[in-house]
Design goal:
Structural class: mainly alpha
Radius of gyration: 44 Å
CATH topology of the domain at 3-58: Multidrug-efflux Transporter Regulator, Chain: A, Domain 2
Number of strands: 2
Largest sheet: 2 strands, antiparallel
Strand content: under 5%
CATH architecture of the domain at 3-58: Orthogonal Bundle
Number of helices: 7
CATH class of the domain at 3-58: Mainly Alpha
Distance between the termini: 103 Å
Strand order of the largest sheet: 1-2
Length: 177
């Protein structure tokens, strides 16, 4: 039994591929997809597409078209329904869903791990800053406790306000006012 892809069927019917897909999607029970989700048409299905094309050319809308049903097709569909309760496609679909879920979980774990590492690095930086601030505060406290000892040791004389000439004093205040 020869099969045709959507493009080949469209060329044979002299319509666009989109039209063939639209017709096939209108009657999903009669036109099956392969494992990749592409339509594959056999001889009887091409005949159905020709029937659909003829009906549309006669002015019938796609919703009004009723496809002819052969007795052999009825018995085949009844046998399929009894023999295979879960088609292989559903098992493959479930396997793919599980794989996608596993992949999604793995990516979520990777994202969380990356965020934890980033937060850990930020916390380390904050700890270092706190340690530096504590050292600076301790250093300032030590310096504030030592001025008594410095006053005992004479350094250079501290200039007083009276020692500054008046012109400099006036210039200094003018910078503020």
């Amino acid at each position: 039994m020869s099969t045709m892809k959507t493009k080949d069927a469209a060329v044979l019917l002299d319509v666009s591929q989109t039209t063939v897909k639209r017709w096939a999607s209108q009657f999903p029970a009669d036109f099956q997809k392969d494992h990749l989700g592409h339509y594959v048409f056999t001889g009887p299905q091409i005949n159905l597409l020709l029937y659909i094309k003829d009906r549309i050319e006669q002015g019938t809308t796609l919703d009004q078209i009723k496809l002819p049903v052969s007795p052999k097709a009825d018995s085949d569909s009844a046998n399929k329904a009894v023999a295979v309760p879960f088609p292989k496609d559903e098992k493959e679909l479930m396997a793919r869903v599980r794989e996608v879920e596993r992949s999604l979980q793995q990516k979520a774990d990777e994202v969380v791990s990356a965020q934890v590492l980033q937060h850990r690095a930020e916390l380390d930086e904050l700890r270092q800053m706190v340690a530096q601030l504590a050292a600076a505060v301790e250093n300032l406290q030590d310096k504030s406790a030592k001025p008594v000892a410095r006053q005992e040791e004479p350094w250079a004389p501290v200039p007083t306000v009276a020692a500054i000439p008046p012109s400099k004093k006036r210039g200094f205040f003018r910078t503020f006012f």
